Amino acid sequence: MKMWLTSTNHKQIGLMYISTTFFFFILAGILSLLIRLQLAQPDQNILTPHEYNQIFTLHGTAMIFLVIAPFAFGLGNFLVPLQIGAHDMAFPRLNLLGVFLFIFSGIIIFLGVFAEGGGAFAGWTAYAPLSTMIVGTGAGQDLWLLGILVNSVATIMVAINFVVTILLYRAPGMTMWRMPIFTWEILATALLILMAFPSLACVVCELLLERHYGAQFFNPAHGGDPILYQHLFWFFGHPEVYVMILPYFGVVTEVLAVFSRKPVFGYVGLVLSAFAIAGLSMGVWAHHMFTTGAVANGFFSGMSFLIAVPTGVKFWNWIGTMWKGKLEFTTPMLFAVGFLFNFLIGGITGVMVASPPIDYHAEDSYFLVAHFHYTLGGGALFAVFAAIYYWGPKMFGFKLNETMGKANFWLMFIGFNITFIPQFFAGIEGMPRRVFTYAPTGDLGWLNAVSSIGAGIMAISAVGFVLNVIVSKLAQEPVGDDPWGAGQTLEWATSSPPPEFNFHALPPIRSERPVFDMRHPELAEERH
Predict the structure, then answer these.
(1) N or C: which end of the chain has fewer CB within 10 A?
(2) 432: β partners
């Protein structure tokens, strides 16, 4: 234990991130089941309104700040030095401090549950003036704000580390245009964090000052403006969506190439589209503010439509990678293809609500809940499992059971779609989000019942994944350095798990597929 708490090795820090995110994932999953239990039927009172507000606030907070993005940071910590041929991250001690601050932030956020008055209740967006109320909120909201502030500092630290490591610590021969797509996506994510997260830290500090020290940033009675909060928050919030998805674009690209037995199709297009998405995302924040009447809807609508173009480029390249390939539907491949299906639905519905007339109807309804979950649950979460099944042998030295893994995928895929497709229709029928109950009107009763059944199927899938980890760990059948037999990037040139300083010897790096070149020198010579 002491070794793990004091280690500055990037692989151990990466695994600390990953294990912590799975702890918070279980917590968030339990909270989501409580939400679906309360909403399974109309006019239920399993939870009080205040309890419900705390539960959906902590569920959203955990998934966004403590699970999806931090898992990508853990995966990047483990893989980026391996993929670029470095022995460690640029700032190992800063790396260790970052993971401690991340863990500490989650503890602070959830400690609010035990405070007088309960935990945070204002949603993961914490809109003012709801989040500035002192009466009835206790210390829970303050602890939430402090936890988010600590989390943003930790995130900025990890972003600085990624940028410096990728730009300065590449091995000889590893030029920028030979880096794996996953590393490119991490670089784009890190730069996006440095632009977006200071705004979050700033607005959280302003909320704390207003709650306790008489500042009036968001109080119109004293010259403040609650719309200012929305500008500052969404200047962080919309780029944060891409912080949570860009690394997983890299995961899916790597998995599809390996199990299509082909090189990545459109390497340059995939790289440029990542930075196009990152850049355009900084100009889309008011996409979330159409109904305020305080923003130029036409401009932000156009920017929101435009950002779909580089995402479409990625889909084109993913399809091109699989086209005429020798597809192997292993568990990681199934999760990657599931990502494509779900994220496509999330993207199409995102383009729909980028149109102000449609957004006026869908705003604050369950249509947006379904859209958001198809983007980050059906998208990023499926890629999380693809990454665990794909790189798990490299991290731990053993493979997860394929039969149990495929059952894990199908239960999750079916359960996810049963959960969230009905929510599109509930939103169209006018069911507002963030309500703890609803009247038995129209089809809302059976739509929510079906959605809750789907959540139960997803819970069974999650339990199956845990059992798979336990069974595979007990069996612990050793795997080779490249258990999939088609590794292309540098992490597959070292042992499983890798040694302390990653490599005993690096292969020559003459393309973006150095391991493939090493194993097929005749093809490499012909190409070069």
Answers:
(1) N
(2) 365
pTM of the model: 0.96
The residues, any chain, with a CB within 8 Å of residue 202's CB and separated by 6 or more, are: 232
Q: Which domains does the chain have, with CATH numbers?
A: 2-527 (1.20.210.10)
In the block, residue with structure tokens 């006018």: 430
213-271 tens-digit pLDDT: 888 999 998 989 999 999 999 999 999 999 999 999 999 999 999 999 999 999 999 99
Checking if the pLDDT of 137 tops 70, the result is no
User: What is the DSSP annotation of 202-229?
Assistant: HHHHHHHHHHHS---SS-GGGT--HHHH
Nearest to 413 by CA among 378, 372, 385: 378
Tens digits of residue pLDDT in 83-120: 999 999 999 999 999 999 999 999 999 999 988 778 88
Region for 173 from its dihedrals, namely left if φ exceeds 0, alpha if ψ lies in -120 to 50, beta otherwise: left
Nearest CA to 448 out of 32, 56, 49, 36 is that of 36
Identify the DSSP state of 482: -
Can the peptide bond before residue 226 be classed as cis, meaning omega within 30 degrees of 0? no
